TrEMBL record, chains A, B:
Protein name: Polyphosphate:AMP phosphotransferase
GO biological process: polyphosphate metabolic process
GO molecular function terms attached to this record: polyphosphate kinase activity
Annotated source species: Hymenobacter gelipurpurascens
Biased composition (Polar residues): 1-13
Keyword Glycoprotein set for record: no
Chain intervals for the UniProt region annotation (Disordered): 1-23
PANTHER family: POLYPHOSPHATE:AMP PHOSPHOTRANSFERASE, POLYPHOSPHATE:AMP PHOSPHOTRANSFERASE-RELATED
Residue stretches making up the Polyphosphate kinase-2-related domain: 23-242
Gene3D superfamilies, sorted: P-loop containing nucleotide triphosphate hydrolases (3.40.50.300)
Length: 258, 258
């Protein structure tokens, strides 16, 4: 995993695959062990009811966001985890500022919230479609930075992951959506069009990594061509974040900080 | 009305009464005329469905926020106006950042939203009660400024009014809550305690006017000892804000900008 902290980042130079020598079987066993650890850490985090955790997942189409959620979180008590997938905004959502619908889904204390896509779409697909120009994007970058800072200052750990697939891997997966009956349901009209716009999408992602990437809230660029490796990298980062919070079981249920 | 744009503001130096020579009867007639104008402007603003308007009302206890809403807005189509009174936060609200519950009530396009008290309570009463220290207040000031900027950039006009009563007038009104049966219902336990803390409240208000008062989103300090004058001042500011938006009736109902 690379932390995208450079001021101008070139995605093509960052790996999309596991480092040489990593073995799938070994990592899969490690991931299994990590999942148990995560389940225990999350139990204590939930009981302590003091912090919250927001996981932001972004990536090109077919970068495997859904599969990642399944692989990393399936061992965790669902009572403490919520997933929200942000789709195309409704009329009501468009009648407010772009963070209005996002803010409603930020996690309360004790909870882990996963954003499957997020407010970053408002400076990604919207730019490729020409709905948002560079000037408006700059304003939104500032608003996003202030918003994430507000969350952090209120006790929310914010983890941002970009699932970094290669163009070749994306094309292969998009083709499977057509050829593999078990994957038909993932096919969306527009997949081909978006695949053709690969360079435009990469460029606006790079702009995000340049402007919404403070040291206090960095992006994790996760090599995502291999599902087993990507899940392991995210699980590790999540484990580290939970360890850092150092949650303790409270003495009483009512011992809730206000 | 004074715009609180100086970097350090002394509330005791700002008037709480109408300028000498203003006559109640004359202003009352003016207000009546203004209300008609407001009703027409709001109708067009609503139909255009392009901008939104947020009115933030703050003031000491008994400064007359409820009465002001009645006096200024009673002629306006209630379909286009919403009032939200922010009370002591619930457990669920306290489990999120302080702007979480506020953001949910920001106005959609076409709407006028009135906040009867607001996110400013999170840097006012909370400070007097010692729940928020100066350092946390500074962080919240930044968050508030970024939040209001986000709203403005999304087409929301933000008007902030502080209803400025004198301590003498406040005491008189609080006494009436006890002695006048038609005002008993306004009495709240704690009224006396808060009245005793007048200097502390004035000090934290002054801090707000120093830190959350950009030229693009200033406070209006409204002399509020006389109900007739205060309503007139707010109605004038609202009229000016609506005129500035220069709303036009759209050609079709469906002509809604996205």
């Amino acid at each position: 995993m690379s932390s995208a902290t450079s001021s101008s980042l070139n995605l093509t130079k960052l790996p999309t695959r596991a480092p040489r020598g990593m073995q799938k079987e070994h990592i899969a066993a490690e991931l299994k062990r990590l999942r148990q650890e995560l389940a225990e850490l999350q139990n204590c985090f939930y009981a302590e009811n003091r912090h919250s955790l927001l996981i932001i997942l972004q990536g090109m189409d077919a970068s495997g966001k859904d599969g990642l959620i399944r692989r990393v979180f399936s061992g965790i008590n669902p009572q403490g985890v919520q997933v929200h997938a942000f789709k195309e905004p409704t009329d009501e959502e468009l009648a407010h500022d772009f963070l209005w619908r996002i803010h409603q889904h930020t996690p309360r204390r004790g909870m882990i919230q996963i954003f499957n896509r997020s407010h970053y779409e408002d400076v990604l697909i919207t730019r490729v479609l020409g709905l948002v120009n560079a000037e408006e994007a700059r304003r939104r970058f500032s608003a996003i930075n202030a918003f994430e800072k507000l969350l952090q200052q209120s006790g929310t750990t914010v983890l941002k992951f970009y699932l970094h697939v290669s163009q070749e891997e994306q094309l292969e997966r998009l083709t499977e959506r057509v050829t593999d009956p078990s994957k038909h349901w993932k096919y969306e009209a527009g997949d081909e069009q978006k695949a053709k716009q690969w360079p435009q999408y990469q460029a606006v992602y790079e702009d995000v990594f340049e402007h919404c990437n403070p040291a206090s809230c960095p992006w994790h660029i996760v090599p995502a061509d291999q599902n087993w490796y990507k899940a392991y990298v995210v699980a590790l980062a999540l484990r580290d974040a939970l360890l850092k919070l150092d949650s303790k079981y409270p003495e009483h249920k009512a011992d809730r900080p206000k």
